[in-house]
Amino acid sequence: MQQKKVGILGGGQLGRMLISPAIDLDIELHFLENDSDAPCSTVSRNFHKGNIIDYQDVLDFGRKMDIISIEIEKVSADALEQLEKEGKKVFPQSAIIRLIQDKRLQKQFYKDNQIPTSDFVLIDDKEELINYLSKNQDKFPIVQKLGKDGYDGKGVQILKNLEDAKQNGFDAPSLLEEKVDIEKEISVIVARNEKGEIAVFDAVEMVVNEKYNLLDYLLAPANITESQKEESVRLAREVIEKLGNKEGIDGMVGLLAVELFIPKNNDQQGAILVNEVAPRPHNSGHHTIEASTTSQYAQHLRSIMNLPLGKTTLRSSAAILNLIGEENHTGKPFYEGLDKLLDLENVYPHIYGKKITKPARKMGHITILGNDIESLKEKIDKVKGSIRVITR
Ligand code: ADP
Predict the structure, then answer these.
(1) Is 101 in the pocket of ligand 1 (CB under 6 A)?
(2) What is the average per-residue pLDDT within 80-103?
(3) Which whole-number Å values give the CA distances from 54 to 44, 61, 75, 358, in the listed order?
(4) Contact 341 CB / ligand 1 (< 6 Å)
(5) Rg for the chain, CA atoms, rounded
(6) Where residue 214 falls among pLDDT bands split at 50, 70, 90?
(7) Domains, the chain, with CATH or none
(8) Which residues are within 8 A (CB) of 249 and not within 5 positions of it... i.e. 6 or more apart?
């Protein structure tokens, strides 16, 4: 294998977790990141300061690399397109990043390619929103999503009625989506290399805390039927192959997390809906570090470097708990209870090395392995009660 320089746009926790498999395969990883305190800053010698949404910064960085990839999709797609023209390998391809940056283009792609997704209309501004909803009052409650610049659920809201829409509706290009009565939210991570090989990880389930209606933990494998498993894998393969077809690209290269909704009362095959995708390592794949034959991070590197893809077999059931900053604590983080956690068998903390904790900020995650759901659940409760991210 020839030594290649791989440049990653973004130096956050997802980039940080690419470092370990890169060491094992002796891959020279470089990061472009504006925040000099970002998670990669303390663990990479090849940390380049620069703005990933700035055309010139991305171009200058990319020109020094052989292969360019991302760990976050909000980057200068124009610069990546220019790098492709100059003969650089950019994976995922710039046209795909551009498509995914805009939820409106993404939804339209599903529709144009007959990929099942919830019904939607595109709305340009608030005036059009109110106009449309006045004439379609039977559609409430309805989901409004900003086309661009939303993240982690911000930029997504449910409009209950016309009054609510008048008060709170986004006044920007957006999507209005039918509200799905969701039974389960699952995610499937799929990888594809330049040779066209595809490998799919088992579906992961987002388990919601009923009391607070918040994500509680992620469970792998998802507790779904065999036909739902097959359908989710089929959909993930279909999306990665069809992405980019329109742009003359022969299928996407890289790692893709496909977020899916299983609607309630869904017993017929084919009713699983695609919500959205992320063309990079994803929160729903952290467990693969310990629980799979190949981790999603190693798979990302293999796919963009056109290496054989790794097997995705799950060696064990697993749960992922997010470690988030406590309310009322902002400042230098202290991981209260970490010692006790390190005493537990089959519990693997991953601390992202962020310099500052803030309420609800993602500071790390904990993977728990177990043979069955019951023993996992017991351990989840134990872990939850034993660690807090606070300041002292
Ligand atoms: P983000 O990109 O900010 O994560 P998503 O599109 O994934 O936004 O939406 C965030 C959450 O909102 C989803 O995980 C889901 O729980 C809920 N949601 C999104 N779209 C719908 C929909 N059409 N119907 C019902 N709930 C939805």
Answers:
(1) no
(2) 97
(3) 22, 11, 8, 27
(4) no
(5) 21
(6) confident
(7) 1-90 (3.40.50.20), 119-178 (3.30.1490.20), 317-390 (3.30.470.20)
(8) 93, 95, 96
Q: Whose CA is nearest to atom 13 of ligand 1?
A: 153
CA of 224 to the centre of ligand 1 (A): 20
Ligand 1: nearest atom to the Cα of 118: 23
Phi, psi of 301 (to 5 degrees): -65, -45
Query: What span, in angstroms and rounded, lies between the C-alpha atoms of 373 and 288?
Result: 17
Cβ–Cβ contacts within 10 Å for residue 112, how many? 11
Instruction: Classify residue 377 as exposed, middle or buried by CB count within 10 Å of its CB (0-12, 13-18, 19+).
Output: middle
- Rounded Cα gap, residues 270 and 262, in angstroms: 10
Q: In whole angstroms, what is the distance from residue 361 CA to residue 353 CA?
A: 12
Rounded to the nearest whole angstrom, what is the distance from the C-alpha of residue 151 to the centroid of ligand 1?
A: 11
Q: Residue 49 pLDDT more than 80? A: yes
Angle, CA 222 vertex, CA 289 and CA 226 arms, to 5°: 125
Q: Is the CB of 180 under 6 A from ligand 1?
A: yes
Place of tokens 């957006």: 174
Locate tokens 């970490």: which residue? 338
Does ligand 1 have an atom closer than 6 angstroms to the CB of 151? yes
Task: For ligand 1, say whether the CB of 337 is within 6 Å of any of its atoms.
Answer: no
Q: Would you call the peptide bond into 92 cis, given omega within 30 degrees of 0 as the criterion?
A: yes
**Tokens standing for residue 233:** 């894998």
Ligand 1 center from residue 368 Cα (angstroms): 26
Structure tokens at 299: 């798979």
Q: From CA 264, how far away is CA 329, in angstroms rounded?
A: 39
What contacts 55, CB < 8 A, 6 or more positions away? 76, 78, 79, 82
Q: Is 59 in the pocket of ligand 1 (CB under 6 A)?
A: no
pLDDT at 213 over 90: no
Tell whether ligand 1 has an atom less than 6 A from the beta carbon of residue 177: yes
pLDDT tens track for 276-330: 999 999 999 999 999 999 999 999 999 999 999 999 999 999 999 999 999 999 9
- Is the shortest distance between the CB of 276 and ligand 1 below 6 Å? yes
168 Cα distance to chain centroid? 27
User: pTM (2 decimals)?
Assistant: 0.96
Distance 389 CA to ligand 1 centre (A): 27
